[in-house]
Amino acid sequence: MATQITGYKSKAVAAAVALVNAVTTTEGDDSEDALREILRDNEFFWQQLETGDVESFREWGRTLRPFFEAEELMDAAELLNDLMLRIPMHPHISNHEPHGVHMHYAPPSSRLPDRFRAATLMKLSELVCAYGLGRTGVCAADGCDNVYADTSKAGRRRFCSEACANRTNVAAFRARKRTVDDRTA
Ligand SMILES: [Zn+2]
Ligand SMILES: [Zn+2]
């Protein structure tokens, strides 16, 4: 936890990434069970997910994808600003397990989908204000369309996972070795 630069008491950035990957990628699983698991893994009130809300979560994942694909900071900012005008926001301090005292961004009586939209939007906006687009993007591995957000201190990530980083490094190593072998042959 101490190595995280953002999202203390909030896993909203990680939740946004998981949702975008679940609903917008070729390998993604956007089933109700998978979405419930994303909510549980990221400490949202997953028990409150109703079948009627599933499509609005999928829609939100599709809405956030262009943010991760944006190449210009102001394009990303405009996208987030536009959403912040449309999503009901009413920041207030809440106190509940497992987080203790922390911010809520949606109006107090909001249901889960609105709370999720408001929280993911705010945390992505904070990340962008602090780090520009240097912490988010689409995985650099060939053939992978997952998005990622790097909230580590080092902040040098370009891949969605260790698996993609390793696969790419192995491929680069083989390519280098081939060039050397060709020269020495
Ligand atoms: Zn809360
Ligand atoms: Zn990847």
UniProtKB/TrEMBL annotation:
SUPFAM superfamilies xrefs: Jann2411-like (SSF160904)
Source taxon at top rank: Bacteria
Domain Zinc finger CGNR: 135-177
Pfam families per the UniProt record, alphabetical: zf-CGNR
Residues making up the signal peptide according to the UniProt record: none
The name this protein goes by in its record: CGNR zinc finger domain-containing protein
Organism: Actinomadura rudentiformis
